[in-house]
Design goal:
The protein is of the alpha/beta class. It has six helices and six strands. Helix 2 (about 40-55) packs across helix 4 (about 80-95). InterPro entries: FlgO_dom (IPR041215).
């Protein structure tokens, strides 16, 4: 055998071994999965509040308080999470920044579900609470957790008859912070 033949054989062997290594490295599919980053929850929730306000400009003239409820899991209306509490509080905060009086209603064991007007959780009867605070409407909503996103429905509901005055739907990416908030019961 000549030196050229041995050299060609060695190069061919290295090429085959190199392809095998590359082939093994490319079978790991975790590197192709996109990294989901969190949205700015404050900005997203303030945007939802602004959208609700845009749809009900006359509400500010009434100068009546609003109730802010915890957002609940659409799959189990008797539960919420850290995310549901944060959404309700941040949307309520935005209404307060816009000059509304906002009374926060935190979720308790007694859950009230308003049929026909959408689901929301309150600690006591909506009419009872709204009358005691002379409230015009309730800020409430639901969320649904998907594989990569959280789908949120925010509503402004008239307290006297449960009519939906305004509604706004938006999507939050299910990044690390959102996952941790969803897991926090």
């Amino acid at each position: 055998m000549s030196g050229n033949t041995i050299l060609r054989g060695a190069v061919a062997l290295l090429a085959v071994l190199g392809l095998g290594i590359v082939g093994c490295a490319s079978t790991d599919d975790t590197s192709t999965r996109p990294i989901i980053r969190d949205a700015n929850l404050v900005e997203q929730n303030y945007g939802a509040a602004d959208a609700l306000l845009t749809r009900t400009p006359w509400l500010k003239e009434r100068n009546e308080p609003l109730l802010a409820a915890t957002f609940v899991d659409i799959n189990n209306l008797e539960t919420s999470s850290g995310l549901g509490r944060v959404i309700g509080q941040q949307i309520g905060s935005r209404f307060a920044q816009q000059g509304f009086t906002v009374v926060e209603i935190t979720m308790r064991n007694n859950i009230f579900v308003a049929e026909g007007a959408g689901e929301f959780a309150l600690s006591r009867s909506v009419k009872e609470i709204s009358q005691s605070h002379n409230a015009a409407a309730v800020i409430a909503g639901t969320y649904a957790v998907g594989r990569q996103s959280v789908f949120v429905n925010a509503r402004l509901i008239r307290a006297t008859d449960n009519q939906v005055l305004a509604s706004y739907d938006y999507v939050l990416p299910l990044g690390p912070d959102a996952k941790a908030l969803v897991a926090a019961q």
